[in-house]
Amino acid sequence: MAIKTLDEFLATIPDDDNRERMVDVVVWVGFTYPELELRIVWNQPMFTHHGTYIIGFSAASKHMAMAPERATMIRFEPVMRERGTDFGKMFARQPWDKPFDYELLDAFIQHQLAEKQDVTSFWRPKEHELAAAEPVASGAQPPVVREYTEDDDEWLRATVLPALEHYLAHPESAHTLEEFDALIKQPVRDYEEHPDDVYTLDAVKAELGLD
What we know:
By secondary structure, the chain is an alpha+beta fold.
């Protein structure tokens, strides 16, 4: 049966902790990149921008995978080897029993957005793979993966975690992708409209109905 909602996809992950990890990652992407659209395609969650693919996720028994496109995987191969990332041709594996590499995910998404800003097709043109291989073969400087700071950790605690807690406590409130999308992105939109407002953890919790 074709999977059409995030809830249906999450139901295919039997382990509670693994399922929470997947929700955490999806929520993080939605908060960090509110311009992306969450979709379920080919039975898996993925994010798109102006109709073109940016990043997707899948789950296996021992790991979850984040999949940019082949061109991005080629370009980041030196980076992943240096970070000790387990990867294949199309995706980077993230073991369930190890911390998730949000820094690498962030770099994947930024690279995809930059490389695909003028791409109108869903997938990258084939020549992107050839272009990505050239700097790797020549030993050019690989993409930079920004290391997180304490400020990033505080932002996660004040935004992602409350939304994650709300979704896990009330999964019935986000049956549709539209509802889930609105849930995780509204505080970001409010902050952009009113940047002078101070958004404390309590304020965000109240906005998400957690108070």
